[in-house]
UniProtKB/TrEMBL annotation:
UniProt xrefs under Gene3D superfamilies: P-loop containing nucleotide triphosphate hydrolases
PANTHER family: AMINO ACID IMPORT ATP-BINDING PROTEIN (PTHR43166), L-CYSTINE IMPORT ATP-BINDING PROTEIN TCYN (PTHR43166:SF35)
Keywords, ordered alphabetically: ATP-binding, Cell membrane, Membrane, Nucleotide-binding, Transport
Major localization listed first in the record, in broad terms: membrane
Topology in membrane: Peripheral membrane protein
GO terms for MF: ATP binding
Protein name (database record): Amino acid ABC transporter ATP-binding protein
Species of provenance: Saccharopolyspora thermophila
Coiled-coil segments on the chain, per record: none
């Protein structure tokens, strides 16, 4: 579902991603761990073309994201085509990014109507179904500020799901939450994984990674230093830097 090869990205003279390769099979969950500043958010932003890449390829479900190949060279796709591609790649942010002036239901139907052209009645039905899924049925008319952080993040996940994404990206989805609210969000993510949703999850929740991930990737200094099944990477890391990082977060 996701294939990244030779991905390079710099900001000015600072290299942030230095040749990242990553493959995620359909229905699999990959957790990305690594120190602050190692390029995790930039990696996610390159996947859905929120950042232009300097070199390398990102393919989602067999299609290059953001570019088309013409005579062996990559040409940027027009914005409306990229918007369409992005519609199939959901993103859940650390700070929820809900629209504060819209109700929960309005947050959930906006993109399906606006981007996919789903009829309003159908969009509302979809929204209700996803609210049920994240355990927030009945909160359609609430405003984000009336909800706890955990509830807001579950709404953000429901909103991503209304687009029926092929791939769902999470950028530290529980980092902004009070500790007692982390579990309810992880539980929703665990259910999604079990339902076969393909996901890339940047997280410091090592317990979640151990339990849910098919593969864990350790990113350090813009490079994948080590990757493997959780029982190998987390319990028996080969690279000294992976060991050092795990000692610090565990
Ligand atoms: P992480 O998510 O692992 O903490 P980031 O991908 O956010 O790391 O950032 C990696 C590096 O890239 C950091 O040094 C950060 O300061 C830099 N960076 C990220 N975004 C930008 C930007 N838009 N402009 C300049 N530098 C950036
Ligand atoms: Mg980050």
């Amino acid at each position: 579902m996701l294939k990244i090869s030779g991905l390079h990205k710099s900001f000015g003279a600072t290299p942030v991603l230095r040749g990242v390769d990553l493959t995620v099979a359909r229905g699999q969950v990959t957790c990305v761990i690594g120190p602050s500043g190692s390029g995790k958010s930039t990696l996610l932003r390159c996947i859905n073309h929120l950042e232009k890449v300097d070199a390398g390829r990102v393919e989602v479900d067999g299609a290059l994201v953001g570019y088309r190949e013409v005579g062996g060279r990559l040409r940027e796709l027009p914005d409306r085509v990229v918007a369409r591609q992005r519609a199939g790649i959901g993103m859940v942010f650390q700070n929820f990014n809900l629209f504060g002036h819209l109700t929960v239901l309005e947050n959930l139907i906006e993109a399906p109507i606006g981007v996919l052209g789903v009829p309003r009645a159908q969009a509302r039905e979809r929204a209700r179904e996803q609210l049920r899924r994240v355990g927030l049925k009945g909160r359609e008319d609430a405003y984000p500020r009336q909800l706890s952080g955990g509830q807001q993040q579950r709404i953000a996940i429901a909103r991503a799901l209304t687009m029926e994404p092929k791939l769902l990206l999470f950028d530290e989805p529980t980092s902004a939450l009070d500790p007692e609210l982390v579990g309810e969000v992880l539980a929703v993510m665990r259910d999604l994984a079990q339902a076969g949703q393909t996901m890339v999850v940047v997280t410091h929740e090592i317990g979640f990674a151990r339990e849910v991930a098919d593969e864990v990737v350790f990113l350090d200094g813009g490079e994948v230093l080590e990757s493997g099944p959780p029982e190998e990477l987390l319990d028996n890391p080969r690279h000294p830097r992976t060991r050092e990082f795990l000692h610090r977060v565990l």
